[in-house]
Write a structure and sequence with these properties.
The complex is a heterodimer of chains A (446) and B (463).
Chain A (H helix, E strand, L loop, with lengths): L1 H11 L6 E18 L2 E19 L2 E7 L4 H15 L27 H4 L2 H16 L5 E20 L4 E19 L2 E11 L7 H14 L9 E7 L1 H13 L3 H5 L20 E3 L22 E5 L2 E2 L6 H7 L7 E2 L7 E2 L4 E3 L6 H6 L3 E9 L11 E12 L2 E14 H6 L1 E4 L4 E2 L5 E2 L2 E9 L2
Parallel strand pairs in A: 7-14
Antiparallel strand pairs in A: 1-2, 1-4, 2-3, 4-5, 5-6, 7-20, 8-9, 8-13, 9-10, 11-12, 14-15, 15-16, 16-20, 17-20, 18-19
Helix pairs in contact in A: 4-5
Chain B lengths: L3 H11 L6 E17 L2 E19 L2 E7 L4 H15 L12 E2 L17 H16 L5 E19 L3 E20 L2 E11 L5 H4 L2 H15 L7 E8 L5 H9 L4 H5 L20 E4 L20 E6 L2 E2 L6 H7 L7 E2 L8 E2 L3 E4 L6 H6 L3 E13 L5 E13 L2 E6 L2 E6 H7 E4 L4 E2 L3 E5 L2 E9 L2 E9 L4
Parallel strand pairs in B: 4-6, 8-15, 14-22
Antiparallel strand pairs in B: 1-2, 1-5, 2-3, 5-6, 6-7, 8-23, 9-10, 9-14, 10-11, 12-13, 15-16, 16-17, 16-18, 18-23, 19-23, 20-22, 21-22
Helix pairs in contact in B: 1-2, 3-5, 6-10
Classes of the chains: A alpha+beta (446), B alpha+beta (463).
Chain lengths: 446, 463
Amino acid sequence: MDDLLELGDRLVTMAAPDEQVEVVLGAGRGTSVRAYDGEIEAFTSATSRAIGVRVVVDGRQGFASAGTLDDGVAVETLAEARDNALFAQPDEHVGLAEPDGVEPIPLDPWSPVVGEMTDGERIELAIDLERRVRSGDPRITGVRSASYGDAQSTGAIVSSTGIRVAGRSTHAGVSVLALAADGDDTTTGYGYDSGRDHTDLDIERVADDAVERSTAMLGATKPASARLAIVLEPRFAASLLGIAAGMLSGERVLKGRSPFAERLGEKIAAPMLTLVDDPTDARSIAADDHDGEGLATRRNVLFAAGELRTFLYDSYSARRAGTASTASAVRSARSTPSVGIQALAVEPGTGSVDDLVGGIDLGIAVHSMSGLHSGVNAVSGDFSVGVEGHMIRAGARAEPVREATIASTIPRMLLDLRAIADDLTWLPSGAAMCTMAIDGVTLGGT
Amino acid sequence: MIDEAIVERTLGAALRTGGDFAEVFVEDKRSSSAMYDDGKVEELTSGRDRGAGIRVVVGDTTGFAHTADLSEPGLAAAAEAAAAAARGGGGGERVVSLERRSTEPPNEVEILPETIPKASKVELLGRADSAARAQGSAISQVMARYADSRRRILVANSDGLLAGDDQVKSLFSISCVASGDTGLQTGRESIGATVGFELFDTYDIEELARRAAQRALTKLDAVPAPSGEMPVVIGKGGGGVLFHEACGHGLEADLVNKNASVFAGRVGQQVANPLVTLVDDGTMAKEWGCYAIDDEGRPAQRNTLIENGVLTDYMWDHLRARKEGRESSGNGRRQSYQHLPMVRMTNTFIGNGPDDPDDIVAGTERGVFVAQLGGGQVNTATGDFVFGMTEAYLIEDGKITAPLREGNLIGNGPEVLTRIDALGNDFAMGSPGTCGKDGQGVPVGDGTPTLRVARLTVGGTAA
């Protein structure tokens, strides 16, 4: 990390008196193994380097980046960012983050285990995962891919406004896509997990999950269209609330791209919804002590008992809105910061998942979702995605269905939230979510 | 870009532990973009990436390593890492002698973007903003983006191949927000081609901006889309996304090979209405998905995948073709030197059919007309796919009527191919797209004439 900070320092000292310079640096090494049919299909060893330089002069911002930490290229990158700044139009609110006195919570998302692992152990993990899936059920006909990967990353942000932070982290993950068949009927099921190193991974649960998800969909048919309740298990609740929370970006609000602008302090969700974005919680794999502009992260309450409490801001949007940054800048070294969510966590309900399902007369328990990028519009709020799942009839899980859509709007779904269960789950994405039920959704089928 | 002798020695190092095949892929990419938002030029950005990916294949195992260090020791270290990963059995010295092969690019680039002053690129953005806002006071926000890239690649492998390509692309997109009593609506247009700054001699930026604004304005009157199965007419150009998802991915040999495609084992069978001839063509001059050579050094080809409804072939990359003892079809692509190549589409399209597009709509009693499609997604194993409609209308009594709110449509690839019952004579290519597969994005094009699917499920909220 010291070498990253030193390179950052060198570039920042080159800032002209009337100029702000921010340097973001990253370096990492990673290994991944893909198993197929009991053998290694692909083994990748990767090293990555990145530098991003942002220059602000007279309210004009320019940015340049490169995939190396070579000294000469770094200096050229600064020059290019400086040149780019000349062509932007001035905006009095444009500027780098300034230290705001908030102390970072101590976090060390680094496991030495990743660096001590042998390639043989990595390979065994991927092959073991594939073997477990293939032998998990006689109806499993294959595995499209079973992968294990890990990475060690370091990063630093240095700016002429006094930001100087560095950090390091490790990450390990597995994923598998199982194929099941019964006659001509083929289905798939996806399982995954992530952690700081491989000892955090529950390979058996991932394998069981992929097997269960694929075999459960065998015999699925297309359902009849209906208006009903949907049940979203934690991973899909995270997708939905992630989109909703993204609409609370202060930048979107300021630029007229959020249907929730002007709604601060109003009850725009059902009273059972309390939702925070909290990257300071070490239980989240997405926990981080600093945001993308080097400010200490903080716990932001988005919804308290259904009431909209705050929008999220980076330093630009905060300055423009006349408020303080919520330390919600997200970015890589290859891009300028933008406002984003970091580690969503929902407050669990009190009833069990069985209770939640038991109270539903007609519904669908969603098993997979597709088209989140093509049928959801965060500006208009329209929500329509493809699903597979099981029908719920008279409080009990009934027949499997596929090739159907569910549709509503995000603002309506927040209000139509019917129940949140007590099964708080820390997801591989970093979100902490529970199973949820939402009323009044249209199922599109035959 | 790099000394041939160094590449030869690197390949030798990669084969030292007994690999069957080794490859060095070198890439030097520069990109620049300019963003206009909220009434002003927000920022210009530039990016630079230079590095090499080295792979070694032993049996069915691939070892891969990449590095941003293009010095001989840097390449040798990557070659060693790739070779160790592939864990070959034998060993010894292998000498590779490279023979340079040149492939004509599909088109020449007239004006390299790097020769155009930044001020000229920025000027386009302001023009687009003004044209969009002039469409009405309901246009409340406009975002416009200019981007160009130049990607130089060199591919060398242990078969002695040495080939290079210089790929220049230009892109312009505009997104508008309209605001009214019913809330906010969006409209988007984009153009992109494998050309330089001459793109803007061909296209009128103001006209593009007006169209994006009109799409947003039209939707202020949108009613909830219906839900359930009905006839769906897709306007010219956009339908390519449907074929890309409904069958394109399922015809990629890596998925077929793993039995992860509903189209596995179906070559020679009637899989679509005889109206349908589906082609994937990496040689289409100037199109978003064209190139001289793929990322394995193979010249781009025009490949007929479905002819008069009969499945004729899959798409192939080097590995999958070698396994089957045939030639690659020139579809081996990768996002960057940091990625392994795999089978990918290029420009995928359906040619003209016999029908007048107006007659197709007039012959549809009740259904949905999709004027602009968003992205899509497919599960190749089941064949189920979705695609978004970003501008659509009801068809009532053979006439296009009320605009609809956005949503997805869902169908099953093999079923939808047989349900295409009308194909227009107004072929057009669609918007430039980025196709994602296993975490890698590559530029692709697609096109179709107006067409009708007799039955498809529309995912709206109305009964």
